[in-house]
Amino acid sequence: MEAAGGSAADERWASLCNCVVNFLLEERYHLTALELLQELQEDGRYAHALRLRAFFSDPALFPPDLVARASSTPPGGDPQSLLEEKIAAQEKLALAEYDLRLAKEDLSQLKLELQKKKESSPEDSNGLLLGASTHEGSISKQDRRDLKISALGTLKDNERRDLNCAVKEYLLLAGYRLAAMTFIEEVPDQDLDVWPNSPACVPDALRRYYYQYLSSTAEAAEEKISILRENETLLRDNDQLNAEKDTLTKSREAANSQVTALRKSLEAAYKDIQEKEKMVQDMRQSLDVQRKELNDCRAEITALKMYIEGAQSNGDSKVSESMTNILTSAVSQTEDTQKDCQVIGNNAEGPSVSEAPVSCTTDENGSYGTSEEEKSVSNSSTENVTSNSNLHGDSMIDKSQGSSDGISVYVSTEKLEISNKQKSSDKMALETIKIVSDALPKIVPYVLINHREELLPLIICAIEKHTDSNVRDSLTHTLFNLIKRPDGQQRRIIMDACVELAKSVGEMRTETELLPQCWEQINHQYEERRLLVAQSCGELAVYVRPEIRDSLILSIVQQLIEDPATVVREAATHNLSLLLPLFPNLDKYCKVEELMFQLVCDPSGVVVEVALKELVPAVVRWGGKLDQISRVLLAHILASAQRCPPISGVEGTIDSHLRVLGEQERWNIDVLLRMLTELLPFIHQKAIETCPFASVDPTSSTPENIFSASCLKLYSTGDSEWSAFEWMHTDCLPNLIKLACLLPGKEDSLRTVITKYLLEVSWCYGKDYLEHFMLPVFLVAAGDIDSADFTYFPLSVQPKVRGLRPKTSIAEKLAIVCVFPLLLSGILGSPSSCQQLEEYLRKVLIQNTKDGSFSMHHTAEIINAVRFLCLFVEHHGVIFNILWEMVVNSDTSLKINAAALLKALVPYIDVKVASTHILPALITLGSDQNLTVKYASIDAFGAVAQHLKNDMVVDKIHIQMDAFLEDGSHEATISVIRALAVAVPNSTDRLREYLLTKIFKLTSLTPSGDDIERRRERANVYCEALRALDATGLSCLNIAFLPLNIYAPQLHSKSTRIVIIDIVDSRV
């Protein structure tokens, strides 16, 4: 608040100063203006003195030759020459006034012509205004104000006196006393020390005049009028919207009444359908009962017929007559039953009775025979029946003439024979199935593994046809265990057989016979068997009832997800994704979501890949709960980092905010960020589908056409709710920033994943979204709120974004360390922001260092951010362009920063880039006249020697190191030996021998000077170098006798002698 108040006071003070400057120049108080210029420059207010400096440096007003002549002329110069110069100046002034008058006349004429064109063609007013603004672009608001002031006429004496007194008061209050004294001398006709009492005489008058002037401008009035008009327009729009709302309410009520009526009619129809279905079921049951009775009657008729034939053959006429009566009544009952069955079958729309009716006929002689289609009864039986019926024909005809004229009995002898044959054939087939079923378990073990698949048709047929459930279970067990450890092709063959079997036996037998076998194989000792079960669940789910899919099969999959074998978990993940569309409802959604996150965080990369590519999209499409998944995902990401311990327990330090990630937590964060990337297309599509603006084209293939600047401008008004779109910059990006602030500096891999996600977001949502939403969010989070533009943020969203600004110095440093790398690589690193990235890097690394901004206090953090940016090869060109500007800059601090940045970038470049960019820049810095810059480049050379082993690079390093050692300074020697000692473990033998040679040479020289601290430091550096060389395995001859020669002329400290003895003992 204090900073904001100070900046506002400075702006007011600058405005008052500009007013005083304008007054002095307009009233031609040039001496006072010149004195004010000198005092402003002495106070360091260069920005306030710009106009004065421009005025007095104008060659048209103050020619250089006259100024030089005046400065060289002594006080007692020649009056004649001064008079001539005055006359020449007056002539120039007259010419300038004439040109000014002509320009004003031309300007007034142009304004009149423009006004006429406006009145003649109002429809083209916009174009004319644009043209006029282009032609007269130099006329600013200040010029228009000046014109309005000049239109008031010349100043009156009292007005001039009041203004002069106010200006004098301002100069005194501002501390410009010399300018105030000069001003009093320039106004000799007025006594400025005494200000008459008038309405204009007020304390701090000039500031009050300025405020009154601002509040009375025409622009303020015009703005007020425009606000009133806009208010009226909004009121009219509000009334129109209310009317539309009433209309829609009435329409909704009418639609609700229609829906209620339709719902009632639907319920009535549903009840009617239920009643009819119940009636159909009753009729079908009655049909089954009637069919059973019909079959019983047929059997009874057949038995009676055979009994009658036997009785007639024995000549028992009384028995025959009684049997005939019984038969006649039975036939009548059979026909009635058959008719009832037909009526019931027709009413129930079921299949008609397919069996041919067994019927008997009584001919005119009283004999019993078959129908015309079935007159294949034996001749002997027919003759016996005919002869016997002739004896008693009359009596039987008399008794049955009126009641049994249409009675006929049909005996299907041929069909009975076919039925008997079919029964015998079925019996034989069943016996065959039993024989095969008994033999298969004994045959399978003795068939070669590669040929056991040929037994599958027999096994399937036996399982399908056998009547004993125990035998079927045994054969199903044999099917699943056909091969002890089946490979992929063999599992595919067994699975195809199981699918064919499930198609044949139906849902119930699949549930009771196949699925129990799957359950038994879950904990099998061989992973190939468990893999077979995992692969079978998804394919067999189609052939079971829906309620079994989300109960038993889901339980099997859940057990397999816990399997220790990676291939089993992978197969279970794949089949779970196939199983989800078959679930009848979302009752098991919470369980499935839990399984999804468990599989995404699986320790195996193969399982994670399948979960991300198949399971996650399947869960999103099946459940339709993208918001919940996104919310839970962000919570899991933050929780994985927050549960880790901090680097340091000391409060108030940056390490107390950073976390030490374990391997499991690091893996979880990595895969969850990848899951967030997989969800991005769904999030983007939902944002498009829920867009409240009609201008958006959902079918467009380019993001710029979907989230264009016009669409984002409509969103910025805040009139429409668009939660799916806001989620990205109000929830997702802030949570990623929180995650980044928990990651220590070494977690470049996780920062790279976050960066890739941000780049993917910028590609999906387009350049406008990147520039107007993502960039301001990260600028605020990085502490650079002055560069953030909130134009496109609704007022309801702006507080959330502004809340990301660091509140304390620790938070500011944390933002630079953790968020600034993401700003460079993930936001400005987008392909569409290459130019913006270069400008921002130049601002941070070069320009801001001159202004004393945060770049001066966070140099190491900014260099680390640029180092992270160098992980992306596409940004190398931009980085090295900025580096060269720093190298050739005259500022020493910039050159030192360039050396540190070059050292940080070395591990991330190859030999080609080092040869073309790094080494030339380091050589330039190493040749600098400033010793600090020169010594700063030595460590960077050591980093190059450590990471690059190319012979050409090593030769250049030798040459540059020789140049450093030739200086002979203590600092250069220490820096070179330390840099090479650090590079020795990973460098070539040539560089090791070079270091060894230099140590020989340096230690053979007699120490100069008596500074014991320097001698001790040099001895310790040589000792460290010897330890590094000793660890590389150089020859014993080189190392063993080196300490005896090196340290003889050096300081014989205790620690040095101990190191020498250790090295000699280990080598000799």
TrEMBL record:
<protein>
    <recommendedName>
        <fullName>HEAT repeat-containing protein</fullName>
    </recommendedName>
</protein>
<dbReference type="GO" id="GO:0032367">
    <property type="term" value="P:intracellular cholesterol transport"/>
</dbReference>
<dbReference type="InterPro" id="IPR016024">
    <property type="entry name" value="ARM-type_fold"/>
</dbReference>
<dbReference type="InterPro" id="IPR040362">
    <property type="entry name" value="RELCH"/>
</dbReference>
<feature type="region of interest" description="Disordered">
    <location>
        <begin position="343"/>
        <end position="404"/>
    </location>
</feature>
<dbReference type="GO" id="GO:0055037">
    <property type="term" value="C:recycling endosome"/>
</dbReference>
<feature type="compositionally biased region" description="Low complexity">
    <location>
        <begin position="377"/>
        <end position="390"/>
    </location>
</feature>
<dbReference type="InterPro" id="IPR011989">
    <property type="entry name" value="ARM-like"/>
</dbReference>
<dbReference type="GO" id="GO:0005802">
    <property type="term" value="C:trans-Golgi network"/>
</dbReference>
<feature type="repeat" description="HEAT">
    <location>
        <begin position="918"/>
        <end position="956"/>
    </location>
</feature>
<dbReference type="InterPro" id="IPR006594">
    <property type="entry name" value="LisH"/>
</dbReference>
<dbReference type="InterPro" id="IPR021133">
    <property type="entry name" value="HEAT_type_2"/>
</dbReference>
<keyword id="KW-0175">Coiled coil</keyword>
<feature type="compositionally biased region" description="Polar residues">
    <location>
        <begin position="359"/>
        <end position="369"/>
    </location>
</feature>
<feature type="region of interest" description="Disordered">
    <location>
        <begin position="115"/>
        <end position="141"/>
    </location>
</feature>
<feature type="coiled-coil region">
    <location>
        <begin position="211"/>
        <end position="300"/>
    </location>
</feature>
